[in-house]
Amino acid sequence: ILALVGFYLGANWALFVFIVNIAVLAVVGYILSRLMPERAPGMMLEIPKYHLPSAKVVLFKTWFRVKEFIVVAWPIIIVGSVVLSLLEHYDIVTYINMAFSPITLLLGLPIAVGTTLIFGILRKELAMIMLFQALGTENVISVLSKTQIMTFTMFIIFYVPCIAAIGVMVRELGRRDTAFAIAIGFIVAIVVGLIVRLVGLVA
After folding, report:
1. CA 161 → CA 67, 69, 121, 126, 169, distances in Å?
2. Residue 59 lies in a domain
3. CB contact burial 110-120 (16+ within 10 A = b; e otherwise)
4. Percent helix, strand, coil in the chain (nearest 5)?
5. In the structure, what pLDDT confidence band is assigned to residue 43 with cuts at 50, 70 and 90?
6. What confidence score (pLDDT) does residue 123 get?
7. How far is CA 177 from the centre of its chain?
8. So what's the pLDDT on residue 197?
9. Fewer CB within 10 A of the end CB, N or C, for the chain?
10. Would you say residue 43 lies in a domain?
């Protein structure tokens, strides 16, 4: 997500998204800790000495990340593009976009981006990538304003965890707490998205 923001808006905007992400997590975490105080056990960690990584380790880690994207994300992107094309062909995408229209219109986004929210649940970056298909162009900046791109990005980051994260949360927290966490994330996403939109309109 940061890479796509950096590509369209520049490195400074990508850094801004990162900082806002950390700030929002800190604020929400603080509020929840005050509303639902819980005694946290102490934890001691032995911090190893820092070493300059070898070229072999760097290459291995790089390949590990690239391989994950190639093996997992690419097939989803390809299948997702085919599915979205079929939905557009049979005009089903119109009904999906209408279902998400209360959210997209509230955030000042085109109705066409509604379908991308579904793909964002599979993997966060897919929502950004599937914008190309949904908007019918790779030049997103020609269709969306900078404010809309930032609003969409901030909403995607917080609105619903990806499927893998939800699975872990259900296993570790249970269904009730997972549903609560998803609801909190969705509310935060709406609030942050609206703030970005309003700031963009005023600026």
Report:
1. 22, 18, 6, 13, 9
2. yes
3. bebbbbbbbbb
4. 80, 0, 20
5. low
6. 79
7. 21
8. 93
9. C
10. no
Q: Where are the alpha helices (DSSP H) in 10-123?
A: 11-35, 55-68, 74-89, 92-106, 116-122
**Site of tokens 């809309």:** 148
Closest-CA residue to 129 (of 200, 75, 92): 75
DSSP state of 41: P
Residues in the chain: 203
Around Cβ 101, how many Cβ atoms within 10 Å? Answer: 13
Could you read off the pLDDT of 102-157 as tens digits, one per residue? Answer: 999 999 999 999 988 888 888 787 888 888 888 888 888 889 998 999 999 999 99
pLDDT score recorded for residue 77: 75
Sign of CA dihedral 184, 124, 150, 86: negative
Contact present, 184 and 28 (Cβ < 8 Å): yes
Domain encompassing residue 145: 2-38+53-202
- What tokens appear for 79 in the block? 């299948």
**Residue 130 DSSP symbol:** T
Report how far residue 54's alpha carbon sits from residue 112's, in angstroms, rounded to the nearest whole number: 47
The whole-number average pLDDT for the span 67-71 is 77
Domains: count for the chain: 1
Residue 178 domain-assigned (yes or no) = yes
Q: 47 in a domain, yes or no?
A: no
CA–CA gap between residue 51 and residue 19 (Å, rounded): 27
